[in-house]
Amino acid sequence: MRMAELAERSGESVATIKYYRREGLLPPGEPTAPNQADYGQQHVDRLRLVRVLRDVADLPVAAIRTVLEAVDDPSRPIHEVVGAAHRALDPGQPEPDPEARAMADGVIARAGWQVADDAPARDTLARALAALDVLGVGATEAALDRYVTAADQVAAQEVAVTLDGAEEPSRDVLVTSVVVGTVVFEQVLTAMRRLAQEHHSAVRG
Amino acid sequence: MRMAELAERSGESVATIKYYRREGLLPPGEPTAPNQADYGQQHVDRLRLVRVLRDVADLPVAAIRTVLEAVDDPSRPIHEVVGAAHRALDPGQPEPDPEARAMADGVIARAGWQVADDAPARDTLARALAALDVLGVGATEAALDRYVTAADQVAAQEVAVTLDGAEEPSRDVLVTSVVVGTVVFEQVLTAMRRLAQEHHSAVRG
After folding, report:
1. What span, in angstroms and rounded, lies between the C-alpha atoms of B109 and B111?
2. Is the pTM of this model over 0.95?
3. Quick one: what percent of chain A has pLDDT higher than 70?
4. Are A132 and B180 spatial neighbours (Cβ–Cβ below 8 Å)?
5. Per-residue pLDDT tens over the stretch A173-205
6. B177 interfaces chain A, CB cutoff of 8 Å
7. Residue A145 has what pLDDT?
8. B78: pLDDT confidence band, cut at 50, 70 and 90?
9. Which of A103, A167, A200, B22 has the CA that lies 20 to 30 A from A4?
């Protein structure tokens, strides 16, 4: 397809598409004549991924480029690409103290989850556990295990739907799903949790 | 107990406690002599609640006062107080469009959740569903029902632990648990979900 149709199908303006070309976020099309090129479905998928990284994940161009490099490196297995997307979604935060981090690592090991050492969610979990400690709330192993079970069930379904949904989805389509899933479905899940809390308080109150 | 012991047990400075007294966030103690008063466990609990609302929920004094008014109004059932705390935790955001809101209301009705019409999580859910729509992802009823199930299980456990944990907990203690639970355990749950996503991608990838 020509540039005009690519703009039409992706919902991006020609100016934006040209800007992405210059920034290296979109690969070139197949040249068909001087100053003219042919674009394919992979360009539509790429523009959709860039849009999601920009509008849903709120990433600056540099972070978008980092995610795309992971997507485009065929030597990196898909779970590493998912990890790279998660890292981009979770900008640097203060390091948790080592004791809290050890606690989080223990929970993850008990859950049997294989997760990269530098996954930002390890630190997020550690900071939350440290906050509970400071507040004198603490979290029993039994309570944490219930969250592990809930998170594991949700994530297993999400990954299955993403991987089984399309026949052999391209990595662009896959990462688009992961980012939308991580950011937007997190909002769905947390909103529902608050609603269910209010409901169960009302039922028992 | 005297002011000095109240400061010691609550971890707040005498100056902060006096400030809270002036702002009406802490009820007066029992006067025992001119310029001297006796404080009880309810003052310790109140200071702890104020601290959680300030440090965990990041609320300004005016919003803290609104939550405390709900806590202190015996005519308001506890689920309304939980709702008031949720409302304070979720500052005003743009109204979702009516179609998205109707979709969210439908999901909630199907879940069988009794939730106030103005619960902010209704709008949060509506905005997330609208975002999925714009992104062309959509969410099938089956997918949404899985989130409903996960959220319902987690929240039912959380409410049960909160209400059964102490014998007849005071409303201050209860609302402290709800705020910590809503804010900090939300971080626990979402961090675990990301970890489990990475794990399940690795296992299947």
Report:
1. 5
2. no
3. 93
4. yes
5. 878 877 887 788 888 888 898 889 888 877 775
6. yes
7. 87
8. confident
9. A167
The verdict on a CB contact (< 8 Å) between A193 and B155 is yes
Q: Work out whether strand A30-33 and strand B30-33 pair parallel, antiparallel, or are unpaired.
A: unpaired
Alpha helices for chain B (secondary structure H): 3-10, 14-23, 41-55, 61-72, 78-89, 98-111, 120-134, 141-165, 171-204
Nearest to B137 by CA among A67, A68, A176, A151: A176
B130 part of contact set with chain A, CB < 8 Å: no
Mind listing the pLDDT tens digit for each residue in A80-122? 887 788 788 776 667 888 998 999 999 999 999 998 888 888 9
Structure tokens at A113: 């989850």
Whether chain A has a CB inside 8 Å of the CB on B158: the answer is yes
Inform me whether the C-beta atom of residue B166 falls under 8 Å from chain A C-beta atoms.
Answer: no
Angle at B165 between CA A199 and CA B111, to 5 degrees: 15
Q: Is A109 touching B (CB cutoff 8 A)?
A: no
Question: In Å, how far is A32's CA from the nearest CA of chain B?
Answer: 31
Classify burial at B137, counting beta carbons within 10 Å of its beta carbon; exposed 0-12, middle 13-18, buried 19 or more: middle
Contact residues, chain A, for B129 at CB < 8 Å = 188
pLDDT, tens digit (0-9, with 9 covering 90-100), for A9-30: 988 999 999 999 999 999 999 9
Q: How far apart (Å, rounded) are the C-alpha atoms in residues B152 and B205?
A: 30
Dihedral, CA of residue B69, residue B75, residue B80 and residue B86, to nearest 10: 10
ipTM above 0.95, yes or no: no
B92-96: long-range contacts (C-beta < 8 A, 24 or more apart)? B93/B120, B93/B123, B93/B124, B93/B127, B94/B127, B95/B123, B96/B123, B96/B126, B96/B127, B96/B130
pLDDT averaged over every residue in chain B? 85
